[in-house]
Amino acid sequence: MQRYSIVFLDMDQTLFDFHAAEHLALQQVLQRFNIDVTDENERLYKASNQAMWRQFDQGLITQQQVGVGRFAGLLAALHMDEALAAAMNDDYELTLGLYGILLPGAEELCRRLSEKCSLYILTNGMSRSQRGRLSRSDIQPYIRRMFVSQEMGCQKPMKEYFRQVFDTLELTEEQRKQVIMVGDSLTSDIQGGINAGLDTIWYHPKGNEPPKEQRPTWEAKSLEQIGNIILGEE
After folding, report:
1. CB within 10 Å: which end of the chain, N or C, has fewer?
2. Is the pTM value of this prediction over 0.90?
């Protein structure tokens, strides 16, 4: 028996291969700004990027500060002019939006679920890159709407983020019982779902154990298993 009829889907590393898109986009940006394309420089960028997103998840900085700050951190490590950071970030967001690379099985999952469920993407990513990637992917026809934190002024796991989603979709209390939040991040997707009073599916293909403070309703090690849980086939 089908368990849920409305599915909130995280985007990166749940449906989309962000790491592949990030690698391709970053290579092009580094080349255009005359920075050596090396494993070490990519590592420096990723370290800066992850540090900025951690601060964003904690509500300490804005997404605009994430974008510029991650490249400022890279430029500082390379002893280059940090004034280039804004231009690099602008170029990166546009370039990243060109790569709608899906994880294996994502298109099949969305096609399968869309026959019986309403699908929505909830993402904390940057608007230009996220909307560009969705528009260039095979799952766009299955997604009814995408909610991007940069456009909403708040982010997962904040209750305000989910309140805005509920209000926009005009979901009644009864309809919210049919909603499931699916994602790979315990801190934004699963905690966000918990904060909003939703059932959750933690997608973790590596089979890690969740901490006691963030217990998902369900766990899935494959995209196929996510579909089985939602449709009541597991």
Report:
1. N
2. yes
What pLDDT, on a 0 to 100 scale, did the predictor assign at position 56? Answer: 87
| Tokens coding 181 | 């939040």
Amino acid at 183: G
**Residue from 10, 57, 184, 189 carrying the catalytic annotation:** 10
- Spatial neighbors of 65 by CB under 8 A, at least 6 apart, are 52, 56
- What is the spatial distance between Cα 39 and Cα 9, in angstroms, rounded to a whole number? 31
> Is 10 labeled as catalytic in the residue annotation?
yes
* 57 has pLDDT over 90: no
Residue among 138, 135, 130 at smallest CA distance from 108: 138
143: alpha, beta or left, given left = phi > 0 and alpha = psi -120 to 50? beta
Give 38's contacts (C-beta < 8 A, 6+ positions apart).
none
pLDDT tens digits, 173-227 = 999 999 999 999 999 999 999 999 999 999 999 887 877 778 999 999 999 999 9
